[in-house]
Design brief:
It is built from 3 helices and 2 strands; from the N terminus they run ββααα. It is of the alpha+beta class. A two-stranded antiparallel sheet has the order 1-2. The longest helix is centred in the last third of the chain and has 21 residues.
Length: about 90
């Protein structure tokens, strides 16, 4: 593999509304320029970003609006805990 070759960026966005959804679901996914746009939009809107290439790879195989499968609940719960902690820190600084 050529070390100078840039790896393809993969991004997956998930959403979880505990009052509406039985499980988190994929709301966006993409590679390359599409992934960069997903990250750009998330950053612009203050959405926390957690870098986990292996998980992004797995989640990118799901369809848009598809619920996260039960075998991924634990790792997705860790990400949601990260997001909630970032949100809480942000609120306490305001």
């Amino acid at each position: 593999m050529n070390k100078d070759k840039k790896e393809t960026i993969i991004a997956t966005a998930i959403e979880y509304d505990r009052e509406r959804d039985p499980a988190p679901r994929v709301t966006a996914r993409g590679r390359g320029l599409t992934a960069e746009k997903i990250i750009e939009i998330a950053t612009k809107h203050g959405v926390p970003i957690k870098e986990d290439p292996a998980l992004a790879q797995i989640l990118s195989r799901l369809d848009i609006d598809e619920e996260i499968p039960p075998e991924l609940y634990k790792v997705v719960a860790e990400i949601l805990a990260f997001v909630y902690s970032v949100n809480e820190r942000y609120r306490s600084q305001s």
